[in-house]
Design brief:
Layout lengths: L8 E5 L4 H12 L3 E6 L2 H13 L4 E5 L7 H13 L4 E4 L14 H29 L3 E6 L12 H21 L4 E8 L2 E2 L14 E2 H12 L10 E4 L10
Parallel strand pairs: 1-2, 1-4, 2-3, 4-5, 5-6, 6-9, 7-8
Helix pairs in contact: 1-6, 3-4, 4-5
């Protein structure tokens, strides 16, 4: 029986655990071949091995997406492994919870480089590859509620995620002529360790599995007319997260 993503190949960044692993799992389960990318070799190898043990096509590549040239190397790795590239999920991210006066240069640079700079370069290189293939493609950015509303506790994170929303919309227009779609998912607070738990309601934290299922929809042919969209998955999260 054919699957939704049979024959498709994908890159998922930040894929060694959590949401990135949930998305990689969902893509593999629906037939895609996936290159998992992350910095921590041991966790990444275990994640890829787990998918392989399920009989799915998955491979791992250790890389820091913030390093110059990393996007070129990652895309080249996917082409070497699979021969083509159809899907990119920009999931890698950092979250610094500090008030404005507590943030320093390092906090700012690490957040912007990871949450915005890396998706830009990955989109640029992967988008060019997909355009040259001539068969379209799909890019999904993992944004945040903090890309829609401000929060004084996460100023750098808000700046990066607002920027990622802008990148999503602008690159969607830039890549439209090549039938490459670019969309974003904006989750609220995510329930930890929820890779296998589906069906969170509007009064619950969203689960990793639910976000992953939306990612599958966005990279599938079911959403071929959807581009430049930012889909909110806030669940029970209010506009300003408090602890």
């Amino acid at each position: 029986m054919s699957k939704l993503l049979d024959g498709k190949t994908a890159i998922v960044t930040g894929a060694s655990q959590g949401l990135g692993l949930a998305i990689s799992t969902a893509l593999c389960a629906d037939g895609a071949s996936v290159l998992l990318v992350a910095r921590e070799e041991e966790k990444l190898a275990a994640a890829a091995a787990g998918l392989q043990d399920s009989g799915w096509q998955a491979t791992a590549m250790v890389a820091d997406v913030t390093v110059e040239g990393a996007a070129d190397d990652i895309v080249a790795g996917a082409l070497s492994e699979f021969g083509r590239l159809d899907i990119l999920v920009n999931n890698a991210g950092v979250f610094v919870w500090k008030k404005l006066f507590e943030l320093d240069y390092a906090d700012w640079s690490r957040t912007i480089d990871t949450n915005l700079g890396a998706p830009f370069h990955m989109t640029r290189i992967a988008g060019k590859t997909m355009a040259d293939q001539g068969a379209g493609g799909s890019i999904v950015n993992i944004a945040s509620i903090h890309g829609q509303v401000g929060d004084p506790n996460v100023v750098a994170h808000c700046a990066s995620k607002f920027g990622l929303v802008g990148l999503t919309k602008a690159s969607a227009d830039a890549l439209r002529e090549y039938e490459i779609r670019v969309n974003a998912i904006a989750p609220g607070a995510i329930d930890s360790n929820s890779l296998d738990r589906w069906g969170a309601g509007p009064n619950q934290k969203v689960t990793q599995a639910d976000i992953a299922s939306l990612a599958v929809y966005l990279v599938s042919d079911y959403s071929k007319s959807v581009t430049g969209s930012v889909i909110e998955m806030y669940g029970s999260t209010h506009s300003v997260i408090k602890i």
